[in-house]
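TODO from last week: model Dimethylamine/trimethylamine dehydrogenase.
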Amino acid sequence: MSDWVEWGTPQKRPSQYDVLFEPVKIGPVTARNRFYQVPHCNGMGYRDPTALAHMRGVKAEGGWGVVCTEQVEFHYTSEITPFIELRLWDDRDIPALSRMVDKIHEGGSLAGIELAYNGMNGPNLYTREVPMGPAHLPVATFTYDPVQARRMDMQDIRNIRKWHLEAVRRAKRAGFDLIYVYAAHALGFLHHFLSRRYNTRTDEYGGPIENRIRLLREITEDTKAAVGDTCAVPIRISTDELLGEGGLYKEEVEDMIGIMADLPDLWDVTLAGWENDSRTSRFAEEGAQEPFIMGVKRLTSKPVVGVGRYTSVDRMVSLVNKGVLDLIGAARPSIADPFLPKKIEEGRFDDIRECIGCNICVSGDFTMSPVRCTQNPTMAEEWRKGWHPEKVRKARSEKPVLIVGGGPAGLEAAQTLGKRGYPVLLAEAGTELGGRALQEAKLPGLSAWVRVADYRKLQLNQLANVETYFDSRLTADDVLAFGVPRIAIATGATWRKDGVGHLHTQPIAIAEGAEVLCPSDLMAGVLPKGKRVLVWDDDHYYMGGVMAELLAEKGYETLYLTPASEASTWTRNTMEQHFIQKRLIEKGVSIRNFTAVDAIAAGEATISCMFTGRQERLEADAVVLVTARLPNEALFLDLKARAAEWADAGIESITAIGDALAPATIAHATYAGRRYAEELDGEPLADGALPFKREITELLPL
């Protein structure tokens, strides 16, 4: 008898969606359907190959027709340290990739590999090799590394063709079904040769289109000759850099595609750079790429795949029926729901975890840590913790669980425990479930975030063993009276109004009569009384910028201050910092960086320079402090103080989870809820044991 509960009951699928499940021939191989997980990074790479293999394998199990790797560095002369990608430098890298291929094939999907040579996108910090590109230019990194790439000569070009060919043969030996020629996202030498922004050559590899595509054509021909009729060869290309004629633009790239029309077995079309192709939902709607990929199909007889953070099944069908795309590409939606294709196939639309477009997944790559997802807390934990997005371990007892708080952590814990089979009581102080996800979804640009609550509420509606109680602001006496053995406190957190944050670890001076607000106030509908408002952002994620945007939209004279070098600086990790600062400027928000707020009085604030400490006073009718949050821990602390009464009340454990323990992102909250539910009644860890599996680098002989 299985220890697992597999969730979901197949329903009748409407016939209009059948087109999505037609097989698609890609050169010599055939995808079982039109769902295509395009290459995407994940922060695991060469460090966590088995975890990565299992993550891709779960997607194959979830029904994707094609499942691809991330960038795979194919030669040591171009690596992208500190970022952690896969490598195929020599034969020793084949086993890790073969393991991934095996997991993908087990699930019935084709396995694709994206071979990458980053060229002038990497300073080669690990190998210390001199970077190469089409021209003598500084390396293009967001850290502005003081390193330049040298101009490739003819021997370099011959070498890179040889190195790519060797990697193709290794990829074929590893078992891949599709071997990419990567020329997209402004990330790599082939894109650099295509774009006038980087390619100023006057030889046969520069100048007119026919010359700039020469190397792409040669490497594609080399690859096709090497794989014969055993593997498909896609080209991944960006149709626009959004730089006008100073870079690649749609009409020019369409000419390039037209010239090479049927050379590859598939065209994978994107935008450049990556930050444009994967904008957050705050700055791009679903299908934002469509104006740039329309028309590619008429240029080639080969299949075309593209992305757009697609979650609408009707839109997917429309793209196929209108001849825009042959395959529906996805990176972020495949992370939010690895079983998206299977759920559509089975007509289980209420079970789909729709991507919210927050890009917390992207932050894994930028922080060199395993990918995480707000909607899918099992992401990257498939092997490390043995979690599965659609299966849970059966309850090991019939003891009920009380969850206090219906925010992201509480909802995730409730639905996971309910699926395991536990009787669950969910007590919510308000009249709606969702907590901060519901509140923040009402802020400018964050409407998609309501999906965090919506998905979990739909799941709870299917669970007869989960009872929800609204208007239930419980006290310690109430909890003790319930007599429930296991209790999770998920009461969230509240924004501070004393200035404590990253910079100030003690409250700042706030005079009587000063109007000081925080995001909790604005989300509750409390707005400043005056006209001039100062927003001090010492949180550095999205909230400070959102507060400034909200106030500007409501007509306030808004000044945004931060001790950091730029607005919402942590959002570099979600690739939206540029868009945030641009929007604030366009909305008339004044921005001052490297500035601290030291004190607040009625009608003014004392601020100081982060470098000199020099102070000045600014007129401000109100100050909105976006600094840090405090756990709503009063109930938890009261219950802990009464631990002597637990046994008489039948209580075995009381655990604070999510923001009620330590405020963080919504992704942290859903993860905390999942972890509590997964580990309840689990075997205790042995002394010194880790709560997850990890891989250790092999030691070679001295």
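Done. The first helix runs from residue 49 to 61.
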